[in-house]
Design brief:
Shape: elongated
Strand content: 5-15%
Radius of gyration: 25 Å
Number of strands: 5
Number of helices: 16
Strand order of the largest sheet: 2-3-4-1-5
Oligomer: single chain
Structural class: alpha/beta
Order of helices and strands: HHEHHEHEHEHEHHHHHHHHH
């Protein structure tokens, strides 16, 4: 089940409920955060809190006709615009400004939401700026963005900035499950990605499950002191890498796999990503000292940094395999 905005953003919903209750909302907010953190949901939640027929201390009931109309984009005093194609055009902002200048259809309040505000054309941004400089009427505007650095500084300065809290790995996992991704993959993806969009992109990679299986097989051979793990770099792993995103994915999966070994050793089994490996790790790392397991993880993390230095992926992974052998077994 998809998490509610109060579960995803408990601090911010409480904060805005207090502002609604005390009638202290400012005229414009910039909500910034990664995709999936709930920017549009929060903006709508605040709008519901303003118009709700049964609001309790600024918290909307989510059931009345006003809340339902806002949820379904049918409320005349809550106006949302989003990119028309690749950008938000000046004509859209002119329409928005004309709505700004009207009295509320059913009340003296109006709420405006601009999604993907960073996609405003220069003309659109300049057109909006005058309103932000000289707000009029009982209006609250929300500009939503995942890339605030792309907005004009003059627009940012006219808004109160609100940074969305990043989803925890547990919250992200639940979001992915609600999107229909398997529990197993959701758990893995929640440790690989920072947002729902990023996680879904990784999950859609046709080689994702092959990379998981192949890296797991590689590391199991390595822990058995099987030098076929070295051969696997060229024969199995490199063929799964088509671009830089794949390179990064392979390395991140290796980091999580090796990290699991350290987590198991120190009894942090709840944090282990590949839980099916717990018994195997216990059986095959008994003779490896704690310090060597930690040094092995450091080697993997360092290899990730080296990839940015134009070292070939194959050379880096082959060197890493040999270094892990030396680290664990010499």
């Amino acid at each position: 089940m998809k998490m509610s905005i109060t579960e995803r953003q408990p601090f911010l919903t409480k904060h805005f409920a207090k502002l609604i209750r005390e009638n202290k909302l400012v005229h414009a907010y910039l909500l910034s955060g990664a995709e999936g953190t709930g920017k549009i949901e929060l903006a709508k939640w605040v709008a519901k809190g303003i118009f709700c027929l049964n609001s309790q201390n600024g918290v909307p009931c989510l059931k009345c006709s006003e809340c339902n109309r806002i949820e379904n984009n049918n409320h005349p005093d809550v106006v949302t615009i989003m990119p028309d194609g690749l950008s938000i055009k000046v004509e859209q902002i002119r329409y928005l400004k004309s709505e700004f200048n009207k009295s509320g259809v059913e009340s003296d309040r109006k709420v405006f939401i601009i999604q993907d505000a960073q996609k405003m054309s220069i003309g659109a941004a300049n057109s909006l700026l005058k309103f932000l400089e000289e707000p009029s009427g009982n209006i609250t505007a929300f500009l939503l963005t995942s890339e605030p650095q792309k907005l004009l500084p003059t627009i940012i300065s006219r808004c109160q900035e609100v940074e969305m809290q990043q989803l925890t790995s547990g919250q992200l996992e639940q979001e992915l499950i609600s999107e229909g991704i398997s529990e197993k993959n959701s758990h893995i993806l929640a440790n690989l990605a920072q947002s729902v969009v990023e996680a879904k992109k990784i999950n859609d990679n046709e080689n994702f499950n092959k990379i998981l299986a192949t890296v797991n097989n590689w590391y199991r051979k390595l822990l058995r002191k099987d030098l076929l793990s070295f051969v696997m770099i060229q024969s199995k792993i490199i063929g799964l890498i088509q671009n830089k995103e794949d390179q990064n994915l392979v390395l991140q999966v290796i980091i999580l796999t090796v990290r699991d070994t350290v987590l198991e050793r120190f009894g942090l089994t709840e944090e282990i990503v590949f839980k099916e490996n717990i018994d195997f790790i216990q059986q095959n790392t008994v003779q490896i000292a704690n310090s060597k397991l930690v040094n092995g993880l450091n080697l993997v993390v360092e290899s990730n940094r080296k990839l940015a230095s134009n070292i070939s992926m194959q050379n880096m992974l082959e060197t890493l395999t040999l270094n892990l052998f030396d680290c664990y077994f010499k």
